[in-house]
Design brief:
This protein is α+β, with helices and mostly antiparallel strands. Helix content is 25%, strand content 10%. It starts with 5 loop residues before the first helix and ends with a helix.
């Protein structure tokens, strides 16, 4: 590291002094030893107030509510049975993620990956063709909706559940990077980052990202240290991950019961995210009396109202700050676009989920470690879902069989052969060798003159499960959890609804395969472990779907012109924040 001026070092020391000033004279209530004293061993206690609100987020104070159906089940789906649950406090975006925000994301990807890994950019592109309908003229939306500045503040659509999760991870890293720049620890220079050498929160915390330092770090009170160290999660400076909200969180936030309660009494039941049981504003004293409260289909063939007085003013989506917010300050929690949530869909989830922070979809992971216990190096290549790419190639060959030339068939056959080799390496746990073979498949495709090469490249990009520069993670194993009682295996999506124990074949162990569970996808149901819940109504739905308790599902790889999303973030510490009655009770 280059030497820093005395001025910069003094700034770092001053920052550290401010960080620890609130507790520099603290003593341990257990041992009586003083904290933050190098002469005393350097035991640390952080002077922490509360969590910083990330950009775009508002605090949703948690509590109990009745989740599920609040009026007739017009679809007779019986998948949102009412149940009382508790949701912890959390943060949520006040609006849906916009086209502008997504363009920012694509621009960053081009800065980092354009030269070496253009397929990563393809992987993040929204599907603009979702606007096409066989009996509608929607080509202008195909061409302009994502990129024209007229739509920059409209919600992004054509985004799959997987793409939404990738965006959340990217946003986490950019926000935490800016925090470190703001604190004077890193130099803001995104153009210097390329390929796997870019900032992520995990690689920074694990010492695998250096970047261009603006200071030596923060003061280290450990007497065995160098005097300075990098920021750790224990310092409370970096924020938790941006993520999709759970179904329970989204529904709770949409209802906004905080505006309908007095002490512990909910005074008025809500059907929609606003007060009352009407879709029009029913306050005769206000100037908005009689206006539609959200962007949805008002009736047969009526998507926007009558010329001269366009009531909802939205033939498709509308800008994200249109219409008044609900009592939490959240915009468009009814109408405009439906929104992805984290949960895997099961029709009986309301009966199966816990009463506290209910969620279905847990897959537990841990960092990959070296034999000496240190964290394994980050990926310096893209990681492909080998089985997924293989299925895509074979299905493509099947669908295009009569139109493929000899060159096309050769390209597909060569790719499939390498994938078979990759699958064998994967079985032998030779992951690096398996992924090297997958990179050879991508190189074959990108160097080919075959007219189907762009299709194959885009299809492969959809099955990138980890990008270059991300931390290596793995699913936890049963053997490392031998003594645990709360869980044993990594994947708990099927728990109590779809696993072998809940299958109709539970009496016959020979049926314990993924193809013989109670959810036989493509035969008796469209439900499987890739079916993800989306909530709320859209610009193309009737008013019924704007009710927060309604729930629908779609495959996590698919997208539509009616589904967008917003991000959430876990709230750590106090559920209410400084200066509220929750803190006063302590």
């Amino acid at each position: 590291m280059k030497p820093w001026s005395n001025h910069i070092q003094l700034l770092a020391l001053a920052s550290a002094a401010a960080l620890f000033s609130a507790c520099e004279t603290d003593r341990s209530g257990a041992t009586g030893w003083t904290y933050n004293d190098p002469k005393n061993g350097g035991f640390e206690r952080i002077g922490y107030l509360e969590q910083e609100s990330g950009p775009g987020l508002v605090l949703i104070e948690g509590g109990t509510f009745t989740m599920g159906r609040v009026e007739d089940d017009v679809n007779y789906s019986w998948d949102n049975i009412p149940r009382r649950v508790t949701v912890s406090s959390f943060y949520m975006d006040e609006t849906e993620v916009t086209n502008q925000y997504w363009i920012d994301y694509l621009h960053w990807l081009k800065l980092i990956y354009a030269d070496s890994y253009p397929e990563i950019i393809n992987r993040a592109l929204p599907d603009t063709l979702v606007w096409r309908e066989k009996m509608e003229y929607n080509e202008p939306f195909v061409e302009y909706y994502l990129r024209h500045p007229a739509y920059q503040d409209y919600p992004v659509v054509g985004v799959s559940w997987l793409q939404a999760n990738d965006y959340c991870a990217w946003r986490t890293d950019r926000v935490n990077e800016v925090i470190l720049v703001r604190e004077g620890l890193l130099v803001h220079n995104p153009t210097a980052q390329v390929d796997e050498e870019h900032f992520t929160t995990e690689t920074y915390l694990n010492g695998q990202y250096e970047g261009e330092a603006a200071a030596d770090g923060i003061a280290d009170v450990n007497p065995k240290g160098s005097g300075f160290r990098r920021v750790r999660m224990q310092d409370g400076i970096l924020l938790p991950r941006y993520r999709l909200p759970t179904e329970a969180e989204w529904e709770y936030a949409a209802l906004g019961l905080i505006g309908n309660s007095f002490q512990e009494l909910v005074t008025d039941r809500k059907t929609y995210p606003w007060n009352g049981h009407y879709v029009r504003n029913d306050d005769p004293s206000g100037r908005f009396f009689g206006t539609i409260r959200a962007n949805f289909v008002r009736g047969s063939g009526d998507l926007m109202g009558v010329a001269g007085d366009l009531n909802d003013a939205g033939d498709i989506t509308v800008p994200v700050y249109t219409y008044p917010p609900n009592d939490y300050g959240l915009y468009n929690m009814a109408g405009n676009v439906s929104e992805w949530v984290m949960d895997v869909y099961r029709p009986l989830s309301p009966e199966d989920k816990s009463e506290f922070r209910p969620f279905r979809g847990n897959v537990y992971q841990t960092r990959v470690l070296n034999s000496d216990g240190t964290v394994a190096d980050k990926y310096d290549y893209n990681v492909y879902d080998i089985a997924g790419v293989n299925r895509f190639f074979l299905e493509y060959q099947k669908q295009a069989a009569t139109r493929l030339t000899a060159e096309d068939l050769t390209l597909i056959d060569q790719g499939v052969q390498k994938m078979e080799q990759a699958k064998e390496k994967e079985k032998e746990r030779k992951i690096d060798e398996a992924q090297a073979l997958m990179q050879e498949v991508m190189d074959l495709v990108t160097s080919s003159e075959s007219p189907i090469a762009p299709d194959l490249r885009d299809g492969m990009a959809d099955y990138i499960s980890n990008t270059a520069g991300t931390q290596k993670m793995r699913d936890v194993s049963i053997e490392e959890n031998i003594d645990r009682r709360n869980y044993r295996k990594a994947d708990n999506i099927d728990y109590q609804d779809g696993d072998f124990q809940s299958s109709i074949y539970f009496y016959d162990a020979s049926y314990e395969t993924d193809n013989n569970r109670m959810y036989e996808w493509g035969q008796t149901t469209l439900v499987n472990n890739r079916a993800r819940v989306y909530k709320g109504g859209s610009w193309r739905d009737r008013a019924y779907f704007t009710i927060p308790g309604t729930r629908r599902f779609l495959d996590e790889r698919r997208s539509t012109s009616t589904i967008g999303f917003r991000c959430a973030m876990t709230r750590v510490g106090s559920p209410t924040g400084i200066g509220t009655r929750g803190d006063d009770r302590r």
